[in-house]
Design brief:
mainly alpha
Length: 183
């Protein structure tokens, strides 16, 4: 049985581009601490290629853990969170819910990089929401609420608690709000 967190291949490709945007917005935090390591940036490039239909889900599923390993190679928490954002984006080909993981880790990275800025987390989430197309919103709205379905990243694991859970809950709350009609 497929998890409700998987989404269709079409929806995964739709949200992959947004997940790549989220990860790319903070990947510089990783690159500043590990300038010779191209893995997170390459993962983001592959996510974009998957979103465009240039790579298959099967190809990307095999590679989804590569970017996450880069996080263990840095000692800066913001840099590690940025690498994890890229890893979550790379995992969208496997399960669409990872797009919310990419956004959550990106927001966490932004907040960790600016501890003096009490609004850094909310500003990053706002930036992410502003970049959501209607198609991305519709696809992400098909996902179960955080903690509702244990069969995937939105279950009771790492993404459900702390800053990561806070970000995902904020995004999902925004997805439930009616959007103003276009003029």
């Amino acid at each position: 049985m497929t998890s409700s967190q998987s989404l269709s291949d079409t929806d995964r490709r739709t949200v992959a581009s947004w997940a790549a945007d989220c990860a790319e917005h903070v990947v510089h935090l990783f690159e500043e601490h590990s300038p010779g390591n191209p893995v997170p940036r390459e993962a983001i490039d592959r996510v974009r290629a998957y979103a465009r239909g240039e790579l298959s889900a099967a190809e990307e599923i095999k590679r989804r853990f590569v970017a996450g390993r880069a996080a263990s190679g840095v000692d800066d928490p913001a840099a590690a969170a940025a690498a994890r954002a890229a890893a979550q984006a790379a995992a969208v080909a496997h399960m669409g819910a990872h797009a919310l993981g990419a956004a959550a880790y990106a927001a966490k990275a932004a907040a960790l990089a600016a501890p003096e800025d009490a609004h850094a987390l909310d500003d990053e989430v706002g930036w992410q929401l502003d970049r959501m197309t209607d198609e991305v919103r519709r696809a992400l709205a098909r996902l179960p609420a955080l903690g509702e379905d244990a069969a995937g990243p939105l279950g009771s694991g790492l993404l459900a608690s702390g800053t990561l859970g806070e970000v995902i809950r904020a995004i999902q709350a925004d997805l439930r709000r009616p959007r103003p009609a276009a003029r």
